[in-house]
Amino acid sequence: MKDMESKVASSSCCTPQVSLNTKETRQEEPAPGNKNLPVAIIGAGPIGLAAAAHLAERGQKFILFEAGSSVGQNILQWGHVRLFSPWQYNIDKAAERLLRKQGWQSPILTELPFGQEIVNQYLEPLANLPELAPHIMLNSRVISISKKNTDKMKSANRAVEPFVLYVETNDSTKRFESRAVIDASGTWGHSNPLHADGIWTREERNLKDHIYYGIPDLSAEQKQKYTGKRVAVVGGGHSAINTLLDLAKLKETDLNTEIIWMMRKNSVEEAYGGEEHDQLEARGALGRHIHQLIDAGEIQVVTPFMIEKVSKHDGRIHIKGTSNGEAKEIQGIDEVIVNTGSRPDFSFLGEVRLSIDPATESVETLAPLIDPNVHSCGTVRPHGEKELRHLDKNFYLVGMKSYGRAPTFLMATGYEQVRSIAAYLDGDLEAASKVELDLPETGVCGISSAPNANDCCMPVSSAKTSCS
Ligand SMILES: Cc1cc2nc3c(=O)[nH]c(=O)nc-3n(C[C@H](O)[C@H](O)[C@H](O)COP(=O)(O)OP(=O)(O)OC[C@H]3O[C@@H](n4cnc5c(N)ncnc54)[C@H](O)[C@@H]3O)c2cc1C
After folding, report:
1. Element (H or E) spanning 310, and its range?
2. Is the C-beta atom of 47 inside 6 A of ligand 1?
3. CA–CA separation, 291 vs 272, rounded Å?
4. Which helix (H) or strand (E) holds 166?
5. CA of 378 to the centre of ligand 1 (A)
6. N or C: which end of the chain has fewer CB within 10 A?
7. Average pLDDT of every residue of the chain
8. How far are the Cα atoms of 61, 164, 216 from residue 156, in angstroms, in the given order?
9. Is 66 near ligand 1, meaning CB less than 6 Å away?
10. 32: which strand partners?
């Protein structure tokens, strides 16, 4: 970290404004005034709230900004989806200690919650605790972060200046100073496109009325939109499978419902995952169930399909692309549901010196641990504050966002990240460096030697999957 800062400092020509001697090393310590500033946390998802719980336990000042009108905003978008990890892996330890002090009753740890239950039974009670509630600002979107009186290019005094956060609230834009930033803003809401090249086209953006990004709740008002229609689902991960299973249920009520599954994978078998070998039983069941539906001919599969163009003709969608090098066009689609994963939003981090891996867009040091291009899912190891550092000291990306585009994030991994960071910010270096992760083991990842980027897979002994 110090080395990285030194490199930046020494790159200016003529007389460096920051030299590399020991005096300058001392400049990296927070300025005396900074110590009284809070740690800023961005996002009241499970990981941002866990960060708040750890800082609260340690008596550290913090302020949490949440863009939505309630906590768990992103999870609420998929509240109807059942998680595949049971409660025991979804509750942070510090959060649990604080909750229990107020008489909170833990859910049954072996049960699989719905997203909505994670919010109602865990995140909301946590956010309402007296240790957290006064420090959470809802309806507060962070729109920019910088260093005080210092733009990205300036190195002088950079390490000692506090961060400044610009936050849009209902009626104004406010400015806050902080001694550290923990960005737990997730990646949900920043979907990848349906295009096989990963690029957004104007045509696709203009079809928002017919294209849904995410897992629609087909038990509610969305039901009408898809019943009896010809629906294309794009993507090869567990979110796509969740969507397909829900559509198959709709088809039981109206046989005119047509389901087409499009993905880049070479064969549909690659999408089934570990099935009965998956030690997360619920996730294995997803693969098993979809396998049965495909065998029964309930879903038409188009794979590999490299989508190049989407357009609208006479009120219906046409999707063009190639399959094994041959041109292919699927016409007459009523609705499209895209489950191609998501990507991190760096738009408000333009003035922060980040260390981001160019391929995964994860925190740079994490990339070799999670890159689905090279990773057989068997070697993800626990990581903490040290691995999560950026060029700007005391700035951290955590949670789903720390994994960038990699689809393998799990809540339990994020809880360990923020435990370690809170310890570090409290000066407890021993606790910060002792990272441990308790996750179920699985043999799933042995099944594919080159998993595709939107697969959900699970390492043999530690952190593993998600589904976006
Ligand atoms: C369908 C689905 C199923 C999953 N199932 C599991 C599972 O079974 N087990 C598991 O461990 N993991 C699962 N995951 C993965 C992951 O654990 C979750 O996505 C989890 O919600 C990530 O938590 P987070 O706190 O990092 O981000 P999020 O939950 O996405 O929270 C981010 C928060 O930040 C807020 N925010 C965003 N931008 C700003 C801003 N600029 N300013 C202020 N606030 C902002 C958002 O409103 C949101 O409240 C699943 C994911 C999905 C999508």
Report:
1. strand 306-313
2. yes
3. 6
4. strand 163-168
5. 23
6. N
7. 86
8. 27, 16, 50
9. yes
10. none
